[in-house]
Amino acid sequence: MVFPTFAAWAALYGKSYNGDESTVREQIYNDNVAKIEAHNAKQLSYSMDVNAFADLTEDEFVAQYTGLSSATPSLSDVNLGTLPEVESPDDAVDWVANGAVNPIKNQGQCGSCWAFSTVGTLESAYKIATGNLYSLAEQQLVDCDRSDDGCSGGWPHTAYDSYYASAGVCSESSYAYTARDGSCRDSSCSVVLPRGTVTGHQNVGRTSSALKSALSSQPVSVTVNAGQLQFVSNGVVTGSCSGQINHAVIAVGYGTDGLDYFKIRNSWGTSWGEAGYVRLAQSGGSEGTACLLQYAPVVPQLSTESVSV
Predict the structure, then answer these.
(1) pLDDT tens, residue order, the chain (309 aa)
(2) What are the distances in angstroms from CA 167 to CA 148, 196, 202?
(3) Is 110 one of the catalytic residues?
(4) The Cα angle at residue 272 between residues 270 and 277, in degrees rounded to 5
(5) Residue 18 is among the residues annotated as catalytic for this protein
(6) Beta bridge partners of 261
(7) Per the residue annotation, which of 110, 113, 151, 170 is the catalytic one?
(8) Where in the chain is the domain with CATH 3.90.70.10?
(9) Residue 291 appears among annotated catalytic residues
(10) C-beta of residue 84 within 8 angstroms of C-beta of residue 298
């Protein structure tokens, strides 16, 4: 595989730089290309490619395109217990193919991954419970959820436990995403899920079998170390956890393609990974591939009254 020169890459992605920054970015780009080439030469189960993030160091990338709060979270607020494991889940599950997942979204340069993971998992849970798939407003959480910190980070479980427990959920069309912090406008949006629909969250066990069990019923909010995934292109990603979680995403299924994998929906647009998705090997040590199991996955708990049809 021949990668574009820095100038060609910059033109492709509409990048422009001031002064000496171009020289700095070109060196970072060339270093990243060398890293990608070295990885691909190993002919592992997944490949890497240059993408829109190729002029960033891993630290810069994580700082700009993730968004878990650096504060150590507590899962005890409105924790409604841990989901029981199903003894014999299906061999494969794909909630995208089943029509329960909205198209890939893009958080941009706002540390709002937590909001996208929260909203996407809720969209799917509500679809499975009622048959209605809405596109809900991430910007509502960014602007209004005082238990989290907008573009400076947050956690899905606190959004379920604190803000959504006392607020209705706006449609995306009435509360559009801006990728920046703003004033709360939840009093003037179109509410599609009334207050009381979400009553808290449930934990999922930190094992591959527990995550598969949960996925047999619904997509699951999970966390990863995004730095390990910056240049992933296609295939099943392998490797043990390195470092710490910093990014919230959504597990939307599992299956086998040479290796057993979990299918992950990201919020970096469709030009990253496999059209916005990535497959992480189910094997990856006690903390999972890309640290998928370092922290407890969670799902929203919905009120039975609110989702009855």
Answers:
(1) 899 999 999 999 999 999 899 999 999 999 999 999 999 999 999 999 999 999 999 999 999 999 998 765 655 444 667 888 987 688 999 999 999 999 999 999 999 999 999 999 999 999 999 999 999 999 999 999 999 999 999 999 999 999 999 999 999 999 999 999 999 999 999 999 999 999 999 999 999 999 999 999 999 999 999 999 999 999 999 999 999 999 999 999 999 999 999 999 999 999 999 999 999 999 999 999 999 999 999 999 999 876 765
(2) 15, 7, 19
(3) no
(4) 70
(5) no
(6) 255, 281
(7) 113
(8) 6-66+222-291, 97-202+298-307
(9) no
(10) no
pTM: 0.95
Indicate the class that CATH gives domain 6-66+222-291. alpha beta
Among residues 170, 201, 266, 291, the one annotated as catalytic is 266
Question: Quick one: CA dihedral 179, 189, 130, 146, positive or negative?
Answer: positive
Domain 97-202+298-307 CATH (choose: 3.50.50.100, 3.40.50.2000, 3.90.70.10, 3.90.1180.10): 3.90.70.10
